Amino acid sequence: MLSIGDLSRRTGVKVPTIRYYEQMGLLAAAERSEGNQRRYERGDLERLAFIRHARDLGLDISAIRELISLSEHPNQPCADADRIASDHLKAVREKIEKLKKLEQELARIVSHCDGDHAIEDCYVIRSLSDHGLCDGEH
Amino acid sequence: MLSIGDLSRRTGVKVPTIRYYEQMGLLAAAERSEGNQRRYERGDLERLAFIRHARDLGLDISAIRELISLSEHPNQPCADADRIASDHLKAVREKIEKLKKLEQELARIVSHCDGDHAIEDCYVIRSLSDHGLCDGEH
DNA sequence: TTAAATTCCTCTAGAGACTAGAGCATTTCG
DNA sequence: CGAAATGCTCTAGTCTCTAGAGGAATTTAA
Ligand SMILES: [Zn+2]
Ligand SMILES: [Zn+2]
Ligand SMILES: [Zn+2]
Ligand SMILES: [Zn+2]
User: Fold this and answer.
1) pTM above 0.85, yes or no
2) At the N or C end, where does chain B have fewer CB atoms within 10 A?
3) Distance A133 CA to ligand 2 centre (A)
4) How far apart are CA A111 and CA A103, in angstroms?
């Protein structure tokens, strides 16, 4: 039986975060010691590692909740799990595209300023005041 | 004199957001009508457009607050403004790098699953359970 | 065995950048 | 003049945690 601190050390998930996941319904409510402290076993360790890995890949809590509930029906088809992952991949790609546009615009703005003149002539300030100076939309 | 709704229509910033910016100290507290409604003039329009553009470029409230206070000292050197923009550009680039790693990993995971088998054999679920199947870190 | 050190408990609040809604007041238009 | 549109303040909710208060349980060392 592991304490919440043990679980935390073994998974790299902070103690309050573990309690938060329990509250959000990702982890089943743990058994308790006589003194009301949480006690975990191997299965909880695995599930928390699953959650952690999914979070690291950027999935949100509700997606993880779905994935967990899917994984509890091993004989069902995996189409839903596939869709969740594909949707997330799509969202990540869209985010990258947006950030790339920002990056281009910001790089252009920064390149016009050598940091060595007065604010009133500064291209950084001027281009923030006037989107007309930008190349694209954002 | 413009009402808050006029300002909103002309800048594309929603009314509650304008009030929020005032509360955060980005916009000066507006003059008021006899009936206590906010009244704006041209200068406020320009400042709000500045804020909006900076937000669209991903700068956060505190960076914008700094930029505004810098722009009120037109004769000072622009090194600080330059630094704020460069730091932000750097942060955007780092975010892109992280997302690209996620994208690769997710694309790999999704490509191993055709969505047409049982959950217990599903590569999506298995790779979430085991980071060892991943190519890189995240 | 007992005292000290560590870990644990619950609950509340805060982060960031808004957004939604309640309940009421003012302004505008026909 | 009366209805519709717009405005006001205040509170609470979004999301994923994180920090802290105040107190209880557990572990370690003397
Ligand atoms: Zn400059
Ligand atoms: Zn622009
Ligand atoms: Zn599959
Ligand atoms: Zn991984």
Assistant:
1) yes
2) N
3) 7
4) 12
